Amino acid sequence: MPYNPCNDSARMPMPDPLIQSLPQTTAPRWTQTLWTRCRSHLLFKTIALTLFLTLFFVAYFQLLRHPVHAVTTMPLTWLDQAISFQPWTLMFYASLWVYVAIPLHLTQTRQHFIALGSAYFFLCLSGLICFYLWPTAIPRPDIPWNDYPGFGFLQSVDSAGNACPSLHVATAVFAGIWLERFLRALAVPRWLRLGNLLWCAAIVYSTIATRQHVVLDAAAGSLLGMLFGCLSAPLGRRLLPGARD
């Protein structure tokens, strides 16, 4: 019997109209780009960040525990009095170590990572020089730290010294500036860029609400972070998506 292709139509499955009506679930292009950039040279980035943080904290704690000049106690302002102690902000305070790493992980090559990492280095170095030349501390708040989980440990490793400018704030502001540049260049949704702004603001606020810094420390740290954000702007021609080396 000769082959008749029309007879196969009865055996072929008919398309399901319900499945055809379902929306496509492919991820937006910007999410794929973010993931690809974060995964690029991941081992190198992780090791380099670990070494950098180790060296930084060695110098930081050396200056904290052995100041070479008289320590100045930072004055309180009316805003310090207005902002109460808020233990729940500790999670934002601790999130800095994730936040500052995000722009570095968004770099595409090792050379780009080193370039942006160098800007971080000089930012931190300028803060350490300030701590060396002008040691500062905040007034000891009358708070039973051991009554709040997490704060007792924080106070034991990071006392009230090395206060002004707040490097916690400076690095957060610097990271926020660079993360905004990356997110804008990658054309991500506006809600993600707004989330970056709110996260940065929450970290800055947490330094006061956790009583780790006073308002003047945070203000000086914000200025330092913005200064280095401006000074490092020319790196955008190399680091931002679509730019040429």
UniProtKB/TrEMBL annotation:
Membrane spanning stretches: 42-63, 83-102, 114-134, 160-179, 191-208, 214-235
Keyword Nucleotide-binding: no
Family matches, as InterPro entries: PAP2/HPO, PAP2/HPO_sf
Keywords tagged on the record: Membrane, Transmembrane, Transmembrane helix
Keyword Transmembrane helix: yes
Domain Phosphatidic acid phosphatase type 2/haloperoxidase per the UniProt entry, residue ranges: 134-233
Pfam families given in the database record: PAP2 (PF01569)
Signal peptide annotation: none
Protein name: Phosphatase PAP2 family protein
Lineage summary: Bacteria, Pseudomonadati, Pseudomonadota, Betaproteobacteria, Rhodocyclales
